[in-house]
Description:
Distance between the termini: 41 Å
Number of strands: 16
Order of helices and strands: HHEEEHHEHEEEEHEHEHEEHHHEEHHEEH
CATH superfamily of the largest domain: Type I PLP-dependent aspartate aminotransferase-like (Major domain)
Helix content: 25-40%
CATH topology of the largest domain: Aspartate Aminotransferase, domain 2
Number of helices: 14
Amino acid sequence: xxxxxxxxxxxxxxxxxxxxxxxxxxxxxxxxxxxxxxxxxxxxxxxxxxxxxxxxxxxxxxxxxxxxxxxxxxxxxxxxxxxxxxxxxxxxxxxxxxxxxxxxxxxxxxxxxxxxxxxxxxxxxxxxxxxxxxxxxxxxxxxxxxxxxxxxxxxxxxxxxxxxxxxxxxxxxxxxxxxxxxxxxxxxxxxxxxxxxxxxxxxxxxxxxxxxxxxxxxxxxxxxxxxxxxxxxxxxxxxxxxxxxxxxxxxxxxxxxxxxxxxxxxxxxxxxxxxxxxxxxxxxxxxxxxxxxxxxxxxxxxxxxxxxxxxxxxxxxxxxxxxxxxxxxxxxxxxxxxxxxxxxxxxxxxxxxxxxxxxxxxxxxxxxxxxxxxxxxxxxxxxxxxxxxxxxxxxxxxxxxxxxxxxxxxxxxxxxxxxxxxxxxxxxxxxxxxxxxxxxxxxxxxxxxxxxxxxxxxxxxxxxxxxxxxxxxx
Length: 474
């Protein structure tokens, strides 16, 4: 299994070096990090235009940081982005994870430019999506693939397939997990206050937003992540009603919280015993933590798998994949799956080109080497300054939990993580990083993401800035 090659322990070592000529070895010379060459903020002018044209000036609520702080980005290259005032940031958000190779990666952009000369959307199967689907099958070992346009679409259709396959309607999801923005899955996410979730033995599904029909609550069963007893009891009592268990193998919206040993295997066993469809949501882990994603990393095969994000290096593409008997439930005239732009040329070519780079270059070796150094360095800095903390995840996608106090209790789920975290101290550290041109997400629940373009010098810069930020914060 891939996790045996890159175990979740510190420190880890890898002798892999980036291929010559790759972005991983090419510095980007621009304005020094943390400096802005303009006295008048172009950002304010651009945001005024954005606010006039779009609600709150954004196309996604996650991008709104307030009227005075919402960032406006001008461009990105490699591991960097630049805002409209010319300030450069080392980007550890990477579009919430899609940019696995680096911004504006030439091999992907070139393939897309060339293909677009032949058209983009045909209302027929095209040669590009066939090639991309074949590459997904080769890397992951799945039997069949259907393309979508996003992670939300992927989980939405996967649930429909599971319900059609089992002739059941309810499904299990885990507290703190985010599976997209459709109504069926927006329950008890990481935006839900812990005190609203009810008793651990009798959790209450909490809608993440207004506008979700209350009647959908009866279709979702929310449980704590990594709780073997609760899951076993629920499936024993209600298994005949449950179509699917929808699980992120690593909690992508909870600091890359890892599954307890045997957790995914336990879900696999319960699904087999009770005729439940196991859906592994790999929108964040797919083609990021291993060439074959979490299925390869953990050595557990799901019935259905959902992909997006790193599958196309930032282009809008997703996929549902899985075992033949489950995927063939999508029968024309019987079980619907479709979309005008599913498998369009732009998305399919970006997917194929991204995965081709993964097959031909040391993408994962390089990212794991950089991430291992970064995780180890952050751990050492926090230890040196006596800051309680936990690191979780893998070198390509990891989270930092800054604690209120030292505790030996494990972080197993959303409830325990929320009780542990010192939000104020993390916010102060983040402000220090941001001021120094280092850009992870301000929310500890969103992991740090790494790309192939990140260099050793970038890691050095990040660790130097992290130490300065911690020193200033405490």
